[in-house]
Amino acid sequence: MGLRDVVKKAVFVDILRGMSVTGTYFVADKVTVEYPKEKLQTYPRFRGAQALLTDPATGDTKCVACMLCATVCPSQCISIVGEQTTDGRSRPATFDLDLSRCIFCGLCEEVCPMAAIVMTRVYELATYDKNDFFLTKEWLVANQVNAHQELFARPADGER
Amino acid sequence: MSDPVAQLVFLIIKAVLMPVVIVLMVAFIIFFERKFAGFFQGRVGPTYLGPWGSFQSFGDIIKLLSKEDLIPSRADKPVFRLAPYIIFIPAFLVMAVLPFGPVGGEPNLFGYRFDYVIANFDAGLVLFLALGAISVYGVVLAGWSSNSNFSLLGGLRAGAQMISYELAMGFSVVGVMLMANSMSLVDIVNGQSGNFWNWYFIPQVVGGLIFFIATLAELNRTPFDLAEAEQELVAGYLTEYSGMRFGLFFFAEYVNLVVVSGILSTLYLGGWRAPLEVLDFIPGPIWLFAKICALVFLYMWVRWTIFRYRYNQLMSVGWKVLLPLSIVNLVVTAIVVSVVG
Fold first, then answer.
1. Are the C-beta atoms of residues B253 and B33 closer than 8 Å to each other?
2. Residue range A1-50, pLDDT digits in tens
3. What angle is formed at CA B84 by the lines to CA B79 and CA B86, rounded to 5 degrees?
4. How far is B279 from B291, CA to CA, in rounded Å?
5. Whole-prediction pTM value?
6. Quick check: helix, strand or coil at residue A116?
7. B39 CB within 8 Å of a chain A CB
8. What is the distance between the alpha carbons of residues B178 and B195, in angstroms, rounded to a whole number?
9. Per-residue pLDDT tens digits for A139-150
10. What SS3 state is found at B193?
11. What three-state secondary structure class fits B66?
């Protein structure tokens, strides 16, 4: 240990430098977001609970019950029963999504040819009842208010 | 009312008021410790209970009181029960010798003389050192009686650490004793009368720093909190304690913090005296309070800045640096005092 180090230790150079750092933090603005009172804005590509988009013209779901999302889903949490409308168009009679099994990978959104199923910004999904995780078609359609606005304008595969 | 009776009444009033004041201070110091811990780390600390979160420590007390008082089945039960009090009581006893205003002189209250100290004890400094040494027993016995590996290791560490730092602390204090020519805290404050450049921290700067570092070890605060090192020893000697017994330890730790800050300001920073004589119109207790608050803030600042020393570093700092330095400080002070004074 040279003389320089001895002097540095005797006048507590390093400790005072450290204390100046903590002192700076003491007076600086705090980084805490007090969660229930204030919430962070999620990013556009945030993957929260899914929503089914409806066609603004007809009011019916964009989904044509092609089963691609149910097939691609790694945790197999989507189950769809399709039906035919009178004008020959196919649509889901039921569209059930078990959120307790969903891993929020977003593959269903990517694979959907009609751009019908999207991930939303909803992340406060804690509940006291496991049955609340079983999302029905009605819930998913109602959830589209939380979908990112850009996703509404996204064209289906055939229109590109 | 004759004078001895009046003195007895004053004594009872002081002996009741002083612990109450300290207990209230401690309650808020615990809150400020948590608040400032947040601030030093860029967080906001407790915010929910009361304005600005300031009733947090009362919430803590209610929580601790409502918890189950668990005693391990293989613990040494009488010692386990006794240990918190061995720490708690000496912490309060030191307050008796701490002067918080002028002592002696003319009658100043309703024609009677009111001494701003509970016990004007000739060897007050020795009493402080002795009671500090007794509280080591509390830590060691708590560690031993818990019958747990973590507690035993924490108790052993605390014992070794406190004993080795007590030496340096004792030697650094002797410098002040020599300068004041007394071991009474009242006389030591009287020896620092005048403006702040008459305070002992200027001639005794080395001793003061050694005393400060040694009290960090004595108070078991970071960077010398090896006895309760959370990461390695869970909570050291506190591991098996729960409920209000844990609360007593926790509380005693902060009472000690206040008392040691008071002793430190009395020995080196002029005690209850104003920094400038023109400010003497502000009463002594307020100055002592301000100095204690400033020192407690300094202790918190150090705690949340410096990380824990390794055990061998702690020992080598204590025995190879602080002890020789404090002896050199003592010798130089003795020579200077005998030549000049």
1. no
2. 788 888 887 778 888 888 898 889 888 888 888 888 888 888 878 888 88
3. 80
4. 14
5. 0.81
6. coil
7. yes
8. 20
9. 888 888 888 877
10. coil
11. coil
Q: Quote the crossing angle between the two packed helices B323-340 and B149-180, to the nearest 10°.
A: 10
**Cα(B90)–Cα(B176) distance, rounded to whole angstroms?**
23
Q: Closest partner residue to A26 among B39, B47, B306, by Cβ?
A: B39
Mutate to test the interface with B, among A8, A11, A14, A22 (most CBs of B within 10 A): A22
Cβ contacts of B301 on chain A, cutoff 8 Å? 19, 22-23, 26
Inter-chain contact A22–B36, Cβ cutoff 8 Å?
A: no
ipTM over 0.90: no
Quick one: CATH architecture of A50-159?
2-Layer Sandwich (3.30)
**Sign for the pseudo-dihedral over CA of B309, B313, B315, B317:** negative
Separation of alpha carbons B167 and B177, rounded Å: 15
**Domain coordinates in residue numbering, chain A:** 1-31, 50-159
For A30, the closest chain B residue by CA position comes to: B42
Closest residue in chain B to residue A20, using alpha carbons only: B305
- The verdict on a CB contact (< 8 Å) between A23 and B36 is no
Question: CA nearest B92: which of B227, B260, B311, B244?
Answer: B260
